[in-house]
Design a protein that fits this description.
Layout lengths: L13 H31 L3 H40 L1 H28 L1 H9 L8 H12 L2 H17 L4 H5 L1 H15 L12 H25 L12 H17 L1 H13 L6 H36 L3 H38 L6 H14 L3 H16 L4 H25 L1 H27 L4 H32 L5 H25 L3 H11 L8
Helix pairs in contact: 1-8, 1-12, 1-13, 1-20, 2-3, 2-5, 2-6, 2-10, 2-11, 2-12, 2-15, 3-6, 4-5, 5-9, 6-9, 8-9, 10-15, 10-16, 11-16, 11-17, 12-13, 12-14, 12-15, 13-14, 13-15, 13-18, 13-19, 14-17, 15-17, 16-17, 18-19
Length: 537
């Protein structure tokens, strides 16, 4: 009988090392994501075509996060890791094939149903688009093109989960970059051509979405084969591992997808605010989510296999220490990011997006949305650690209930706030709901694990908050001063002012963290630099 896999040495101290590797790959992907958004803003601004695309992509994206990236990751990674740890590779590979085949079957059915019922879905989510001639038809067409993206990403997430269980993080973290690369290429190659064919130019972006999904699968498959995986065409609904994945996944769809459901509520409400708010909120959310992708997701992805191992071995002390340490790193990196977004939102939006069809009024509106989103950054990041921890403990009910409650809280907040402050209220309500979601999960997880090293987390959080306030004041002062010294609105001058402000802010943050003796800051700073000195295995 094949011997089971043993947890690798290094304990929770390997999390920073792994997160650094993931951070490099994720940074590459996120930078390409920003370039992608710049390209979209240049070609389409925040007009009707961009609104139509955002709503069209929201439907497969919502189902993807409900079914694939959210619940799938949280259910499959712990189960696969547990099978690998306790039963060995052969059983783990068998489970991988079973899950991939199950995903193809179920997502294929969802895609077919989605294509059939696209129009009533669009009328439900964005009925106000009917006020603009052709906008509903455009949204329906784009949705039908992009729906197969769900199946492709579901497979890509399964491949990513298996690679992460073997502590292979770089290529999986880099795979989303394929989506951005494909979109950028299609924008430049097809947008100028499609009008001559009688096709709306925004269709090029929908085509790029599908090609990007294919790319996410293609880049991961060779590495997984080198680990020993051989895909098998089999399906056994009685398999214990597959049933465990489904047991965790089905109820977990709501628990982990609260963010996406809340964003869908935002989209539905924003469509009633006229042309622009759907796109402003989307651009702002992607900017706000950049630190989460670079920092929160990196730490969470590195933590999840180890959390799953300790949960499978019922080692609660090690599990508690791993979760607590991951939370400290997340707060260490995201509190300064939140402060920076609040004070530098306008120059960031202007430098990145204000080109082509994206005008000054779009910059002002997107800036406001970004500032109202920013407080929720900590909530979004902490959920990346808290929710998967429950699934690793095979306690799917808790995130389900908290997620359902969060959706209700978000709906109440957004419906109320949008009446008071318009589309800005949608950003604020979503951010507050994210904080509520993470706060509830961490409170319950603390009771489940017998503590979360709360004193250490509180001390670390208070110190980094103080350092971040000093940093934010320095950034705001630098931006104001540089506007006086370097006036002008050219992109070069704006970029120079922003770069100088950010550089000064980082220096002040580093000095403040050193003065306050924040040990986690030194580790966070070294996560990436160690990647260039040591080869990860």
């Amino acid at each position: 009988m094949e011997s089971p896999e043993k947890p690798q040495a290094g304990g929770p101290h390997r999390i920073g090392l792994s997160a650094g590797l993931i951070g490099i790959a994720t940074m590459t992907s996120r930078i390409l994501g920003l370039i992608r958004d710049q390209v979209l803003a240049f070609f389409f601004g925040a007009g009707d075509a961009m609104d139509a695309f955002n709503v069209a992509f929201r439907i497969p994206n919502l189902v993807r996060d409900l079914f694939a990236e959210g619940a799938m990751s949280a259910a499959f990674v712990p189960t696969f890791t547990s099978t690998l740890t306790l039963k060995g590779r052969a059983e783990a590979w068998r489970l991988g094939s079973l899950v991939i085949n199950g995903l193809i079957l179920v997502t294929g059915v969802l895609v077919i149903l989605g294509i059939i019922f696209t129009r009533p879905l669009i009328l439900l989510f964005a009925g106000d688009f009917a006020a603009v001639p052709g906008k509903i038809d455009l949204t329906v067409g784009l949705t039908r093109i992009m729906l197969p993206f769900l199946s492709l990403v579901a497979i890509a997430v399964a491949l990513m989960g298996m690679l992460n269980a073997f502590h292979r993080f770089f290529i999986p973290a880099l795979s989303p970059a394929m989506f951005n690369v494909a979109t950028i290429i299609c924008a430049f190659a097809l947008v100028p051509v499609l009008p001559a064919l009688g096709i709306d130019p925004i269709t090029a972006i929908a085509i790029g979405t599908i090609l990007g999904g294919l790319g996410q699968v293609a880049i991961q498959w060779p590495l997984l084969r080198r680990e020993g995986f051989r895909y098998r065409l089999l399906f056994d609904p009685r398999d214990e591992g597959l049933r465990q994945v489904l047991f965790l996944m089905v109820p977990g769809m709501l628990g982990l997808a609260a963010v996406q459901i809340n964003l869908l509520v935002n989209t539905m409400l924003a469509t009633g605010e006229g042309t622009g708010p759907v796109s402003w909120l989307n651009y702002a959310f992607r900017l706000m989510y950049l630190p989460i992708g670079l920092l929160g997701v990196s730490i969470a992805t590195a933590s999840l296999p180890r959390i799953s191992q300790y949960a499978a071995l019922d080692d609660l002390p090690a599990l508690r220490a791993t979760v607590a340490r991951s939370l400290r790193l997340i707060f260490m990196l995201n509190v300064p990011a939140m402060a920076g977004l609040l004070v530098l939102a306008h120059p960031i939006v202007a430098v990145i997006f204000e080109h082509g069809k994206f005008k000054a009024e779009d910059t002002e509106a997107t800036t406001l949305a970004l500032q109202y989103y920013a407080p929720g950054l900590l909530g979004y990041s902490a959920v990346k650690i808290a929710a998967p921890s429950f699934y690793a403990l095979k306690e799917s009910r808790t995130p389900v209930l908290v997620g359902a409650l969060t959706v209700a809280v978000n709906i109440v907040l957004n419906v109320t706030l949008v009446k008071w402050i318009g589309f800005k209220g949608l950003a604020l309500g979503t951010g507050l709901a994210a904080l509520f979601n993470s706060g509830m999960l961490l409170w319950i997880l603390r009771r489940r694990l017998g503590g979360l090293e709360g004193r250490q987390i509180a001390i670390s959080l208070s110190k980094i908050t103080a350092a971040s306030l000093v940093m934010a004041a320095a950034a705001a002062a630098a931006e104001w001063g540089l506007r006086t010294v370097l006036p002008g609105g050219s992109i070069g001058i704006q970029a120079l002012r922003l770069a100088a402000s950010i550089l000064l802010a980082l220096v002040v943050l580093a000095l403040s963290a050193r003065a306050l003796r924040i040990g986690d800051f030194d580790e966070a700073l070294g996560m990436v630099t160690r990647r260039f000195r040591r080869r990860y295995r």
